[in-house]
Amino acid sequence: MITTRMASPDDAPELVRLRRLMFLGMHGRDEPGPWERDAERMARRQLDRELSGGEWLGAFVVDGDRPGPPHLAACAVGRIEERLPAPRHPAGRFGFVFSVCTDERYRGRGYARATTEALLEWFAERDVTRVDLHASPDAEPLYRSMGFSEHSIALSIDLSGRG
To answer: What PROSITE patterns is this protein classified in (predicted)?
Structure first.
């Protein structure tokens, strides 16, 4: 049996470490930088329910059992976004999963599925009616087996050069 738990603010450094590993796997290159410090600070603040003013960030983890300092084996992290209600989304709450990663030492044990299922349950308990994510080619079969499918053509624009 896999034991998942809700991440705490103290897990922020490990969540960022796993996020960096996720990007390495997706892009084939390691990209350390100031974003890690900022991500850790933001995760710590958003996981502290008193500081953040609510439960908008959900993060579920599996603790690692290998020798060495305490570490996380896997995580699934997502956020609730409130939009205007609609006929099929009466609460106006949507979820976005933006970080799922299993440390390579723990792959093949079902940890990504377990943490993602815990996150989906967390979303459902908060009246989220649709959850979106971007899947890597390697992870797509996992998400499809959990019920994810295409629902529209996603378009995006990078505004970082404006302003």
So the answer is: GNAT
Distance CA 93, CA 81 (A): 6
Would you kindly state where each structural domain of the chain is located, as residue ranges? 5-145
Q: Which of 12-26, 53-67, 89-103 has the lowest mean pLDDT?
A: 53-67
> Does domain 5-145 fall into CATH 3.40.630.30?
yes
How many secondary structure helices (H) and strands (E) does the chain include?
5, 5
Under 8 Å between Cβ of 133 and 103: no
The answer to pTM > 0.85 is yes
Q: What is the chain's alpha carbon radius of gyration, rounded to the nearest angstrom?
A: 16
- Tokens representing 130 are 């649709």
| Amino acid occupying residue 104 | E
Edge to edge, the sheet with strand 72-82 lists: 5-6, 57-63, 72-82, 93-102, 130-133
Is 58 in a helix, a strand, or coil?
strand
Q: What is the pLDDT of residue 51?
A: 66
Q: Mean pLDDT for the chain? A: 94
Question: Going by DSSP bridges, is the β-strand pair 130-133/93-102 parallel, antiparallel, or unpaired?
Answer: parallel
